[in-house]
Specification:
Layout (H helix, E strand, L loop, with lengths): L3 E7 L6 E7 L6 H11 L4 E7 L2 E7 L4 E2 L3 H15 L2 E6 L4 E9 L2 E7 L4 E4 L2 H11 L13 E4 L3 E7 L2 H5 L5 H11 L3 E9 L2 E8 L4 E4 L3 H13 L7 E6 L7 E6 L9 E8 L3
C-alpha cells in the first residue's frame, strides 16, 4: 500500500503540516488504518477510496479517528491532482460531503477545500477556567475582542484570543492534561489566536486529543475560526490569512474566504509540497 507524504499549507518549499495520504480501491480495516496512521506518525493520515464519482474519506490521527481534517484534505487534493489531473473532487466524510480542488501550475501544487457548515457557541465558564489553567494563562491574557467560544467547521474546537504575540509564542502545557481536557470536552484542538490586523492572524493549535502536542497548520480549525468571525460580525471583508507554525519552525500559510451567509461553508486554500518517502 502506497503512503504519500505531503505537507499542506506550505510556505514555498518549506513549512506546512505533513499528512499521510492513502488512495486505494478500498479502505483497509479500521484497525489497519489506525496502525498505519500511528506508524506514519503525522497528526493525520487521510484514507480515500473511490465510490461512484466521489471518494469516501476517513481521517486517523496516531491515536484516534477524527471526523474532518483540513490539512490532510489539502494534501489529498494535491495527491488527487497528481494522480488524476487538475480538478474538483467530491469527498464523502463520516458526517458530511465536501469538495477539494487540486491544481498544478509552474511546478506549484495548490489545493482548496470547501469546509462543512460552521457554527459556534460561547464557551462555558468551567471550560474557559480549565483551558486557562492548562496553559497557565489568566483572564488578563485574553483579547476579548475575540470572546472565548466553541467553534466548529466540521470538528469541534475551543478558541482563545490572546492580547500579545509574546503570550502566543510562550504557549506550553502538559500533553496528558491537555488530552484529558480535550477528550472530556469533546474538542479536537484548542485554537490560540493573536490578531495582527483584522485580516491577518497568528495561531497555534494544541492537538492533544490526537496525541500531538501542536499542529503546524490546521485547516479545520481555520474554517471554524473564520465562521466564528462571521458570527461575531468581525470586519473580515470576506477573507483572512492565517500564519501558523512559526513558533515550531514550520511556518505555514492558510487563506480563508468567508461568504456572507451565516453558517455556510468556508473555502480554505494553500499550497502543498511533496515530502521524501
Amino acid at each position: 500500500m502506497h503512503i504519500q507524504k505531503i505537507a499542506a499549507f506550505s510556505d514555498g518549499n518549506t513549512g506546512g503540516n505533513p499528512a499521510g495520504v492513502v488512495i486505494a480501491e478500498q479502505h483497509p480495516s479500521d484497525a489497519e488504518m489506525q496502525r498505519i496512521a500511528a506508524d506514519v506518525g503525522f497528526s493525520e493520515t487521510a484514507f480515500a477510496a473511490p465510490v461512484d464519482d466521489a471518494f469516501r474519506v476517513r481521517y486517523f490521527s496516531p491515536e484516534s479517528e477524527v471526523p474532518f481534517c483540513g490539512h490532510a484534505t489539502i494534501a489529498l487534493g494535491a495527491a488527487l491532482a497528481l494522480k488524476l489531473g487538475d480538478g474538483t473532487f467530491s469527498l464523502i466524510l463520516n458526517e458530511v460531503e465536501i469538495t477539494v480542488e487540486g491544481r498544478q501550475q509552474g511546478g506549484v501544487i495548490s489545493a482548496a477545500l470547501q469546509s462543512p457548515p460552521t457554527h459556534s457557541a460561547a464557551a462555558s465558564p468551567q471550560l474557559l477556567a480549565d483551558a486557562l489553567a492548562l496553559f497557565g494563562y489568566t483572564d488578563d491574557d485574553l483579547d476579548l475582542n475575540i470572546p472565548p467560544a466553541r467553534i466548529n467547521g466540521g470538528a469541534e474546537h475551543l478558541v482563545l484570543g490572546l492580547k500579545t504575540r509574546e503570550t502566543l509564542a510562550a504557549m506550553k502545557y502538559d500533553l496528558a492534561a491537555g488530552r484529558d481536557l480535550m477528550t472530556q470536552a469533546g474538542l479536537v484542538t484548542i485554537t490560540l489566536v493573536y490578531t495582527e490586523t483584522p485580516q491577518l492572524f497568528h495561531t497555534r493549535n494544541p492537538f492533544a486529543s490526537g496525541g500531538v502536542y501542536e499542529d503546524p497548520a490546521t485547516g479545520a480549525a481555520t474554517a471554524a475560526f473564520a465562521g466564528y468571525l462571521r458570527d461575531i460580525a468581525w470586519p473580515h471583508n470576506g477573507v483572512i490569512d492565517i500564519v501558523q507554525g512559526e513558533d515550531m519552525g514550520m511556518r505555514s500559510l492558510l487563506k480563508a474566504e468567508i461568504p456572507a451567509q451565516r453558517g455556510s461553508s468556508i473555502r480554505i486554500s494553500g499550497t502543498a509540497r511533496l515530502m521524501e518517502d
